[in-house]
Amino acid sequence: MAALGITLALLVWLVTLLFISIWKQIHSSWNLPPGPFPLPIIGNVLQVDLKDIPKSFARLAERFGPVFTLYLGTRRVVVLYGYKAVKEVLLNRKNEFSGRGKIPAFHLYEQKGIIFNNGPTWKDIRRFSLTTLRDYGMGKQGNEERIQREAHFLLEELRKTRGQPFDPTFLVGCAPFNVIAHILFNRRFNYDDKKCLRLMSMFNANFYLLSTPWLQLYNNFSDYLHYLPGSHRKVIANASEIKAYTLEMAKEHLQSLDPSSPRDFTDCMLMEMEKHSGESGYTLENVAVTLADLFFAGTETTSTTLRYGLLILMKYPEIEEKLHKEIDRVIGPSRIPAVKDRLEMPYMDAVVHEIQRFIDLIPSNLPHEATQDTMLQGYVIPKGTVVIPTLDSLLYDDQEFPDPEQFKPEHFLDGNGKFKYSDYFKPFSAGEQGSRAAPQPEMVSSPLIALCVSATSQLCTTSQLSSSLISTHNTNQVCSPIQRGWVTFSQ
């Protein structure tokens, strides 16, 4: 009888939970954007393909319109699809949607740094970071010299392979890694340095794992899945080890800090910490997370783009040949290119932009959050609602980019062969949240990619695979090339 009573009590408890869940969803859905009806507890997870979330969003947008509601578990999410809706949130009303939606896999970084910080200090830290990065040459000639120097090292390392097949995954990533490391820590690593390779391995693993179905599931059901085995444990462990490294760097810098002569970004951040001594948002832990944010975002977005760029050039040799001709005409066979050369190289500029458009690096963007109750296109968006402005809906808009599934540098060329920019080109998001996700893409990624593409294009790339077997496209919240293989560089 006792066992029967316990069973009945559990059933009553479960039924009560279901009714409460249904009541909450119905009660809170008044005048929200339309969307599929959610099931209790799991929400609309069964209606989203975790292996291809962007395609699921596109299908739902066709049915419910450019602004629609989903429940991922019990978390209410409003998805924005298309230029008009995305622009309204990211640019026109950025302050109302400048919160960061939770990403449980990075809970160690919550309320600290730039990317995952919803606390009162994040805007100040972001503003300080942008100003300091510019002071250290980001977007200026000083950074161009830094990038040119690293492009030279990359070219020399590629030449050392002497035409023998090798896996370029980490070698190509060393260039952006060293550019960011020099700005943050005033350090440069050899391309075979164990610490460098270890950090890049963790950056690469986390960026890839974030795109897997398990991490998509974990980030929406972390309360239930946290203690289970799974790849989320590796992401959390990697994030912890990366933060431990940047904390070690911060402590080393603190011991030798000379406020009258700051050496790098870390010194400046420590000086800012001392200026705000006693304030909860300015601690050594916060400095470490800020450094980890910048190191990861600045390195991995660029190195992933470079790896995709290599795959694309190997898959489309006719584009590589045309690029070679423009480089030979403007730069010649031996000079390291400069950012100013881009003005005379519209085809290369178009290739660089088309690479970033085509690979669709962060198709579903990082989650935003409404900071107040507000209205959007006639719908209520309650405070705390997670908002996802989909970037792939801009980058793959077939009106702006005809045949968007095809890699065509002509998407960024006018009828006279001159480079043309598109307002739909938002590979790293936009607005305040876009800047806090990675403050440096506009200042580092584009010129670095251009220089490295130019430098590596002074050599011929050859894949050990047939071009028909080279996969250059991926799907999900972030995109990382899962294909690794042997490539040959020759003069």
Automatic annotation (TrEMBL):
Record-level GO BP terms: 4-nitrophenol metabolic process; epoxygenase P450 pathway; lipid hydroxylation; monoterpenoid metabolic process; response to bacterium; steroid metabolic process; xenobiotic metabolic process
Keyword set includes NAD: no
Cofactor dependency: heme
Pfam families linked: p450
GO molecular function: 4-nitrophenol 2-monooxygenase activity; arachidonate epoxygenase activity; enzyme binding; heme binding; Hsp70 protein binding; Hsp90 protein binding; iron ion binding; long-chain fatty acid omega-1 hydroxylase activity
UniProt topology in membrane: Peripheral membrane protein
Pathway assigned to this chain's UniProt record: Lipid metabolism; fatty acid metabolism
Reaction it catalyzes: dodecanoate + reduced [NADPH--hemoprotein reductase] + O2 = 11-hydroxydodecanoate + oxidized [NADPH--hemoprotein reductase] + H2O + H(+); (5Z,8Z,11Z,14Z,17Z)-eicosapentaenoate + reduced [NADPH--hemoprotein reductase] + O2 = 19-hydroxy-(5Z,8Z,11Z,14Z,17Z)-eicosapentaenoate + oxidized [NADPH--hemoprotein reductase] + H2O + H(+); an organic molecule + reduced [NADPH--hemoprotein reductase] + O2 = an alcohol + oxidized [NADPH--hemoprotein reductase] + H2O + H(+); tetradecanoate + reduced [NADPH--hemoprotein reductase] + O2 = 13-hydroxytetradecanoate + oxidized [NADPH--hemoprotein reductase] + H2O + H(+)
UniProt similarity note: Belongs to the cytochrome P450 family.
Protein name: Cytochrome P450 2E1
Organism: Urocitellus parryii
